[in-house]
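In this supplementary section we document a worked example of the pipeline. Step one takes a protein sequence of length 135 as its only input; no multiple sequence alignment statistics are reported here. Step two produces a three-dimensional model, which step three serialises into structure tokens for compact storage. The input and output of this example are shown verbatim.
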Amino acid sequence: MNKRTNGRLFGLPLLTILFLFLIGCAGLNGDLSPKVPGVTLDSGTLLDQEKTWRGMALCGPFGSPIKGRIGEIGRRAAEEAVSKKTTMVYLTTDGFQRLEAWVMETDKKEGCSLIQERIYQDGTLEREEIKKFCE
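The serialised model returned by step three reads:
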């Protein structure tokens, strides 16, 4: 093989992987939860039952599945958002619920952070609130 062919063999797969990574991260700015056919919910009713969730830092890989209620997952997402300094996204394995949490500001004197939390159900924003998280 000559040098020109050798460069193509290694350069093309590398560019393909980079391209797929960038496309994957760009898609996270939109609606992540798929629509579940046949499921309807009155607006303002937040389902709080134990479900299986998968979490990830924005543009990162999904973590292992965990079971929990929205309150438990929200606390975990807030803790991870503070420690990793990034937006945390948790999705139920059925795709019906999504929780996003990120740090708005941190008070170093108190050791507390203001966390913005959004909860979506079936692609619709059901609850948005700001919480105080102290380590």
